[in-house]
Specification:
Elements lengths: L4 H16 L14 H6 L6 H11 L4 H11 L3 E5 L8 H4 L7 H26 L6 H26 L4 E2 L11 E2 L1 H20 L19 H19 L2 H9 L12 E4 L21 E5 L1 H5 L11 E10 L2 E7 L9 E5 H12 L4 H14 L11 H15 L6 H7 L28
Antiparallel strand pairs: 1-5, 2-3, 4-8, 6-7
């Protein structure tokens, strides 16, 4: 994904804003396009830049959110000489409401939401000629991406609440509960699904290569349905999960890495994958929690997501022997949603109503990982334990573990290696955010 030099400069300005304010501004780039021009009257020529701007901005501070959630979930530790707060505040669960791990993901996600709102406003005001199908496609894609970003916010904020309505920067909507936020996100995805179903055979813009296989309305709709299945699982609506998965891209015996991804490159002013680190570094390392290897079953191929270091690394009493090596280069794509997650959602949605069907999905996961079939009990508790175990290894380092353990009320089972450590239930609302 090539980004203009102008956009890169603006991104830097937004990055500074992340550390100095939590007002819901930002979202001013749209890949170098003029925001007033886009919001006042979106032209056909501006549309590709607007969509590209949204897709690019979705990657901003992605590493901050994934790192913090992975630390909370005791998947890995992040030791960096530039900021000891990762092994201090974050591991200890003593969170500051006015520092980067609170403000950066919050502002970055809302900046994307503002980009979407500006583009949708411009679409309403356009004097250019778009067909009804083209308009439906634009709205369907943008509102699906907006829903994803809102879900990212809700994953962090949880019971602290969040804003859903930010369409008017001068009159922001109220903070809503976690339950109301998930309902609004699900409703937004459902409305986007209707638009995508009416969007014809192609979009009036291009998506990145991370959307290969999902770059037509009918295929993008499958991503929309999968994302809504995740939301409905968070809400505990398993009947809805199963219905949504039927229309998603879930394929029980298909490629588990098929899905939708963030893309990165070293081209021009584009950005490399911020979650990649070379092996055996000493000043900046992501090291798996020791339990990831210790708890693994023999022959589980998913353990190769970590690699034994030449020498252990230590920081303030925390020790790591295995480097996280999910990404082997700085241009590897980062998943937004993969088929493997959908199969696991299918298992979860069946664990109470149809245990044998849940086991069938569990076995698809286990067998792909080189493990034998499940032979445990078919009780709800046993299946919950097994599904959470499989999600731990299949989705390692992708931002799920902390959320999973929280939604099953099992955060107290996550390990603390120091007496001062604890796992928080939510990230604080940024200090400068007006409630």
């Amino acid at each position: 994904m090539k980004i203009s030099k102008k956009y890169y400069i603006i991104l830097l300005a937004i990055s500074v804003t992340v550390f100095t304010s939590c007002e819901l501004d930002g979202g001013e780039s749209l890949n170098g396009a003029n925001t007033n021009s886009i919001s006042d009257d979106l032209s056909r020529g501006e549309l590709p830049s607007a969509v590209t701007g949204v897709l690019s901005a979705m990657r901003t501070r992605l590493d901050n959110q994934v790192d913090v959630q992975s630390i909370f979930g005791r998947e890995y530790y992040y030791f960096t000489s530039s900021d000891p707060r990762f092994e201090g505040d974050v591991v200890a669960g003593n969170l500051d409401n006015n520092t980067f791990y609170t403000t950066s993901p919050y502002l970055s996600r809302y900046a994307v939401i503002k980009d979407v709102n500006l583009t949708l406003q411009g679409l309403e005001n356009t004097t250019d000629i778009f067909s009804d199908e083209e308009i439906a496609g634009i709205k369907g894609v943008l509102n699906t991406l907006k829903a994803h970003e809102l879900l990212m916010v809700s994953n962090n904020q949880y019971t602290n609440g969040m804003r859903i309505d930010t369409s008017d920067p001068d009159n922001l909507g109220p903070f809503v509960t976690y339950e109301d936020a998930l309902l609004a996100i699900s409703d937004l995805l459902s409305a986007a699904a209707i638009d995508l179903a009416n969007a014809g055979g192609s979009f009036a813009f291009d998506l990145t290569t991370g959307y290969s296989g999902f770059n037509t309305p009918s295929d993008f709709l499958k991503f929309n349905k999968g994302l809504n299945a995740r939301v409905e699982a968070y809400r505990g609506n398993y009947t809805s999960v199963l219905s949504l998965l039927e229309d998603s891209f879930m394929e029980m015996n298909g490629d588990f890495y098929n899905g939708v991804y963030h893309t990165f490159s070293l081209s021009g002013a584009d950005t490399p994958n911020p979650l990649y680190l070379a092996l055996n570094q000493t000043s900046n390392v992501r090291v798996s929690h020791s339990s990831f290897v210790d708890d693994a079953l023999p022959l589980d191929s998913r353990v190769d997501k970590v690699v034994l270091r030449n020498d252990p690394v230590e920081a303030t009493g925390l020790i790591g022997e295995y480097d996280v090596f999910i990404y082997q280069s700085n241009v590897d794509m980062v998943p937004i949603m993969r088929n493997e997650e959908l199969v696991l959602l299918y298992a979860e949605a069946n664990m109470l109503s149809n245990p044998s069907e849940a086991v069938m999905a569990i076995n698809a996961i286990r067998n792909e990982a080189g493990l034998g079939s499940y032979s445990g009990a078919l009780t709800p508790q046993a299946l919950e334990d097994e599904i959470l175990f499989q999600r731990r290894y299949s989705l390692f380092g992708e931002g799920h573990r902390w959320v999973d353990m929280r939604r099953f009320d099992r955060l107290n089972e996550l390990p603390n290696d120091r007496t001062t450590d604890s796992v928080p239930i939510a990230v604080p609302i940024p200090a400068n955010e007006n409630q």
